[in-house]
Amino acid sequence: MAVPAAEHLLAIAEIGGDLAWVIDLPGGELSYLSPAVEQLSGYSARQWQAREGATAAMFAELMAGLPARLARLRAGDNSRRRLVRELELPHRKGHKVAVEIISTVMAKPAGVPTALVGIVRDIASRREHEAGRRRFASMLNHEFRTPLSTIDGAIQRLQVTGAAADPATLDRYRKIGNAVDQMIGMLEQYLSPDVVAASGTAARADRVNPRRLLEEGAAMVRAAGREALLELGKLPDSLRGQPQGLRLALKVLVDNALQYGPPDTPIRLTGGVTSSGIRLTVADQGAGVPAGEQETIFGKNSRGSNSVSLPGAGLGLYMARSVVEVHGGVITLQQGANENDSGLRTTQFSIYLPIRTSAGKDVASAGHSSDNSGNKF
User: Fold this and answer.
1) For residues 324 and 282, is the Cβ–Cβ distance under 8 A?
2) Which residue, 37, 53, 241, 258, shows the most beta carbons closer than 10 Å to its own?
3) Same domain, residue pair 350 and 211
4) Could you read off the pLDDT of 334-370 as tens digits, one per residue?
């Protein structure tokens, strides 16, 4: 005899260790609870079915808000058919377990609800990861802000005490001050305490369009009055990642190309797909990174010996590498030989990002809000 489709679906739901459950409607009886419940809560499926002791309150959490949700469905409002929320379930041993509950209402063709089905997922490790990410961001903010404050104070003193300096020197002071202001602005936008604190509670975009990243990079080049050569290749339209962080990483590479490449040479931005990920490349024709410095160029406060007269604090590539590594990727540098004894060579920075094929948190489909953690079943 063939295995019923319902059993197949339940097995699929439980493969990843999630707790699957089914509540019959309209009676509200728990008709199925997978064995994973005991590991998650310390209570057996039988105790859940009987709603003994603490399981009565836990069952009430599952059912909270259901009448209002069904009323909206009967009125034709499907916005709460599928919901995602987070809460803490009490464990039999006394501690609480942070979980994510995803549920959806099943209905007959006529629209009559028949069951509330869903999964419960332990998200303790995810919360731990997010807390670590916030600590990492706060550390970066502090590490970057300290030297920037020193540079900012020094350049302000130079501007005051050196007001009678020659125009070239004053222009250099101005450029350094502008670069410091730009870096501090980036810290405020991406790594400020307010942003870091909000990142743990507010919905964060977790998809990025790599084609759009390169298009934005090309627009930056053209806005600076330079020629941009754009090759998008067969990049996917969407990739898991944090858009603001990856946009910052690519901006650093474009800024470097604008700063170190001669103004009459084009900057090439290309994208491509590898066997396990994608590659975004920014290339310029300039003096390149001096020999012996290619291994240290990504270090904190590290600047090339050919950048003494240029503004900067040596933090851009360090920040870009940090962002890319958080995404599981790497930044690499490749340089060509001098061309026609002109002293110019192709300098190419590439961002490699893996394409995740393992199961992970699904992004809500169109028509559903992923920011519904405060909604009830």
Assistant:
1) no
2) 241
3) yes
4) 877 665 555 677 888 899 988 754 444 333 333 333 3
